[in-house]
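Box 3.1 A note on notation
Throughout this textbook, protein chains are presented in two layers. The first layer is the amino acid sequence; the second is a C-alpha cell string describing backbone geometry. Keep the layers aligned when reading.
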Amino acid sequence: MHKPVDWDSITVPLDVQAIDTPAVVLRRWSAYERTRHGLLFDCETADGRHARFRVDIVEPDVIRVGLALGEIESRPSDILIGDERSGPAVPFEIEETSEHLILFTKRLKLVFARYPWQMLAYQRDGHSRTTPFFQQQP
C-alpha cells in the first residue's frame, strides 16, 4: 500500500519565505556616518529596501532615534525635549568591530549589531553591566 507523499501539505506550512514581514523591520546596517550629535546608519529592511536610522545624543543619558525609508526629516514636536542639533554636542566615542558598532557616552553604552540588526543600551556607572536596560529583538 504505497501512496505518493503530498509534499506540499508538509512543506508549505514550513516555508519561511512566505511569512509576511513588516517593511520597516531592519535587517542590517551596511554603513554609518558620525555626525556632530550622534550616528546616521544606512540600513536594509527585511524586504530589501534602503532605510536610514539616526541616533542623536541629547544628554549623556538621553538619546533620540529616528527611522525612515529614504531620508529622515527633522520635524518639530511638542512631546520631544529641545532641539538637540542646535545646542552643544555631547561628547561621545565610537568603537567598531566586524560585528558591532559601539557608542559610548559618559552614562551610556549603545551597541548596534550589524547583522541581524539589533540595538542594545547599557548603563555606564563605573560598574560592569552585562545586562542591557533596553534591547531590540534581532
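The chain is about 5% helix and 45% strand. The longest strand covers residues 26-35.
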